[in-house]
């Protein structure tokens, strides 16, 4: 029998298209030059998520989009750089470019300067022309005037009512909202907002009327009675919708200050966020090291009361873990996990480990002294790969948990 040459065109595309997703863009670009069979899928992946870096990269990409009918429909996500030296011509060109992306669903702006900065290039018109398909918006905008313009009756948020995921890096509510909106954002602005990632609890009060399901708070909350009470009052506004919460705690700055326990935090969540299914707690929580011996009854009671909770993640800072290793009260993660699964029969996944705040935006948050466990079908507990847990904390995966 003769040896026939098997070409890619005769193979089901599923056999080799999937492998493209594991290639870096340079390798994928070279593959597209090898065979026209690679071109459709390769081009789709190359231009799907665009992260622009610097002035030259932005100008070249802008010119390519404006001169092509093929590339604009392929773009789903765009990240604009922190700063770029753009002339008036290229600022106008970038504005036209963003308006030519009919399927753009995510826009990320790493642009923390004000309009008076030397390298500032962002103008309100640039955003208002974006696709109506936009569902995710991330920005570090520090310019008060630009932020406030987004909330005008015909501004960006009013014309992009489909936004479901919002990340705000602002530090003060005055920088984000006009004064008349600081207490409550009107119903016609961001009516479909489901996922919110903020860096300041103060901003959260403006979203009280929104159907927030997933909330990620980057600001550290101190384990004091006053801070826990403040957090509870804010979370109570979302008690009927909130299903996923990611938050970071820290011990009080002053040793003389009264300290709240993790059991008290859980009791607050039972009252203010009873529908939680995913809970991520990071920071310095002493009870995780000692196994919660002193507060086990209160903690277990609260854990059972959160009847929808299926996923629980504890991330302890490396420094706190190092100090805890010297303590005689520390327990193994396996021991604590056994208790957690025993206390709640609804719980399906538990992760306990060390994390680094520096790597909070990377693909891996946890270190070597970390472990993840799932409840097996036989009723026992199985240990699983940590990469399965790390991926749940990346921005896209967490936002759809």
Structure, described:
It is globular, with a radius of gyration of 24 Å. The longest helix is centred in the first third of the chain and has 13 residues. A 13-stranded mixed beta sheet has the order 1-2-3-4-5-6-7-8-9-10-11-12-13. With 401 residues, the protein is an alpha/beta fold. It has 18 helices and 13 strands. Helix content is 35%, strand content 17%. Helix 2 runs antiparallel to helix 3, helix 4 packs across helix 5 and helix 11 runs parallel beside helix 12.
List keywords for this structure.
401 residues; alpha/beta; 13-stranded mixed sheet; 18 helices; 13 strands; 17% strand; globular; F-box_dom; LRR_dom_sf; F-box domain-containing protein
Structural class: alpha/beta
The strand order across the widest sheet is 1-2-3-4-5-6-7-8-9-10-11-12-13
* Euclidean distance between termini CA atoms: 53 Å
- The poorly predicted ranges are 1-5, 356-367, 387-398
InterPro entries: F-box_dom, LRR_dom_sf
Domain F-box: 5-50
Organism: Leucocoprinus leucothites
Protein name: F-box domain-containing protein
Fold topology:
Elements: H1 13-20, H2 25-34, H3 39-48, E1 49-51, H4 54-66, E2 77-80, H5 88-99, E3 106-109, H6 124-128, E4 136-139, H7 144-149, H8 156-159, E5 165-168, H9 173-176, E6 195-198, H10 201-204, E7 214-222, H11 225-235, E8 244-250, H12 262-272, E9 278-283, H13 286-290, H14 296-305, E10 311-317, H15 318-325, H16 333-343, E11 349-355, E12 371-375, E13 381-384, H17 387-390, H18 395-399
Parallel strand pairs: 1-2, 2-3, 3-4, 4-5, 5-6, 6-7, 7-8, 8-9, 9-10, 10-11
Antiparallel strand pairs: 11-12, 12-13
Helix pairs in contact: 2-3, 4-5, 11-12, 12-14
């Amino acid at each position: 029998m003769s040896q026939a040459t098997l070409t890619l065109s005769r193979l089901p595309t599923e056999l080799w298209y999937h492998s493209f997703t594991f290639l870096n863009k340079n390798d994928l670009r070279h593959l597209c030059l090898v065979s026209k069979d690679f071109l459709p899928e390769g081009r789709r992946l190359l231009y799907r998520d665009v992260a622009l870096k610097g002035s030259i990269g932005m100008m070249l990409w802008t010119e390519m989009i404006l001169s092509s009918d093929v590339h604009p429909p392929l773009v789903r996500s765009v990240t604009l750089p922190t700063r770029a030296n753009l002339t008036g011509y290229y600022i106008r060109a970038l504005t036209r470019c963003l308006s030519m992306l009919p399927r753009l669903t995510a826009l990320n702006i790493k642009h923390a300067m004000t309009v008076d900065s030397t390298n500032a290039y962002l103008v309100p018109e640039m955003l208002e022309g974006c696709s109506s398909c936009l569902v995710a918006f991330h920005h570090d905008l520090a310019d008060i005037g630009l932020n406030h313009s987004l909330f005008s009756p015909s501004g960006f948020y009013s014309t992009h009512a489909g936004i479901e995921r919002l990340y705000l890096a602002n530090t003060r509510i005055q920088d984000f909202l006009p004064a008349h909106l600081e207490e409550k954002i009107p119903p016609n602005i961001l009516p479909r907002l489901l996922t919110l990632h903020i860096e300041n609890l103060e901003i959260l009060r403006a979203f009280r009327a929104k159907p927030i399901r997933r909330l990620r708070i980057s600001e550290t909350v101190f384990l004091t009675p006053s801070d826990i009470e403040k957090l509870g009052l804010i979370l109570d506004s979302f008690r009927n919708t909130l299903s996923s919460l990611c938050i970071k705690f820290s011990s009080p700055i002053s040793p003389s200050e009264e300290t709240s326990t993790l059991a008290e935090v859980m009791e607050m969540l039972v009252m203010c966020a009873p529908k939680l299914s995913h809970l991520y707690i990071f920071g310095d929580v002493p009870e995780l090291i000692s196994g919660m011996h002193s507060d086990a009854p209160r903690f277990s009671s609260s854990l059972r009361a959160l009847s929808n909770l299926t996923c629980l993640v504890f991330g302890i800072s490396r420094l706190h873990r190092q100090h805890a290793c010297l303590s005689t009260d520390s327990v193994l993660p396996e021991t604590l996990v056994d208790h957690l699964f025993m206390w709640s029969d609804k719980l399906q996944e538990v992760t306990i480990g060390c994390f680094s705040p520096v790597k909070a935006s990377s693909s891996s948050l946890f270190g070597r002294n970390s472990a993840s466990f799932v409840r097996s079908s036989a009723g026992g507990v199985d240990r699983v790969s940590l990469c399965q847990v790390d991926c749940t904390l990346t921005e896209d995966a967490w936002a759809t948990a």
